[in-house]
Amino acid sequence: MTSKGKTSESKEDEARQIILLIEDNPRVTTGLVCAIEEQGLDCVHVNDGVSGWEVYDKLRPDGVVMALRPLGFHGLAFLRALKNREKHLPVITLFSKGENQLAVESLKAGAEETFRRNADPLTIAESMVSLLKRVEERRRIEAAWIKASEKTVPDLERILTEAPTALVCADAMKNIAFANRRAALLLGKPPHALVGSPLGDLVAENMREGWLSALYRGAASSTGYGAEVRIRRGADEWFASKINAVTNSGGRGVIISIHDMTREKLVERQLIESKRLASLGNLVDGVAHEIRNPVITIGGFARKALAALPEDSPARSYLEIALTDVKRLEAMVTEIEGYVSFTKNRNGDFEEVDLGRVIAASVERVKSRSGGKTPELMRGELCEEVLSVVGSKALLIELFATILENAFEAVMDGGNVTLSVCRIDDWARVTVTDTGVGIKDEDMEKVFDPFYTSKMRGVGMGLAKAYMIVEDHRGQIRFVSRAGEGTTCTVLLPLERRESGRVDR
To answer: Has this prediction a pTM greater than 0.70?
Structure first.
């Protein structure tokens, strides 16, 4: 068990919140512990569920980050038990490739967030900080509610107050007249701040009038009102919600139930993305096949026609232009078919490989592809020891060749490319930095998408392949860039043999 630890001499350390990390993958643990502690939190790490319970009972941590399937551990059972003990405890789950459904189940079981195990550790740590702040606000609201409820209230009002559904009552003047405890927690405001406030403050200003009109009109109908609406939580946070409303017994006010749909929307996006990726391979494969046949036919006839024309015929220039475009289309189809084949058949032979030799081979491949016309490759920080990783030599050469090729192309009009290799704990880190054109902020999220490219040629399959190769090797890849200033690509690969290879847990 590892922890940054606390000392009696430091009041600041005593005030730091504790995060329990349950993860048996050393390369994942290293990044997460550092990221969590950089956020001003203490991180206590254990490898399994038994140790996790011992630490939980002893330290009562403020939050938990847990893999769903570490050694000797059933993550969902542990999660449900945690939530039974402390419902407001923020929990983030981590899942591996092939565990998407398990991640969805963890959200249903009470986890606030879920991430892939190879996600950016800083993103996970920042998410935990945000969740901790929300818990503090919830506890403050709880305390305010208990104080406000010290007076005796009728049984029916007490039932509504403690109902597990967020309930809000608004009067004919469209002001909130009652909000139960669940609504106060959901909306991020204490009861006294909600009661008497305009109901329209829950939605964006530009839709208040229309929404209130539709709400009161629909509530008075035989079926009541029902719609998805973006609702304000606290001062500046918004969430998707399902709103249902009916009129009260007097017929002038409305009774509203609010259901937070954040998790449902997340699951929906994950399912849509999964289906999109599943169908993408079949789609592009079919399209490429349909394009190839007519392109070959057009190219064949154009070449025959060109050969039949005399050298001084003006028509030759038109056919040469057509053949140039045919070659471009043939290259595009070949690249698409290669991508589809790669996604289906990338099961490389995993063995111990010398990372230095892999990178040297990648440099030679890039030079060979360009006919030797590449900018000078500068050497930055280089590790003196031999770094060996377990993986596919062919795939790793393709990975670094792709990254270097992109860097070289970015500085063709002037600039430098620097390569650095070093060891960070149990990781091998390879960094390629160029001083080229950089990547626009709005394009950073798309760099790994198939068919996204800023090049004048090609269809953008290279970095999509690179992402899959890194994922197969249980690694991480990240781009940092500013338009006009250059780009840095960092690849982290684990050095432990037991974590390498295409193994899904």
So the answer is: no
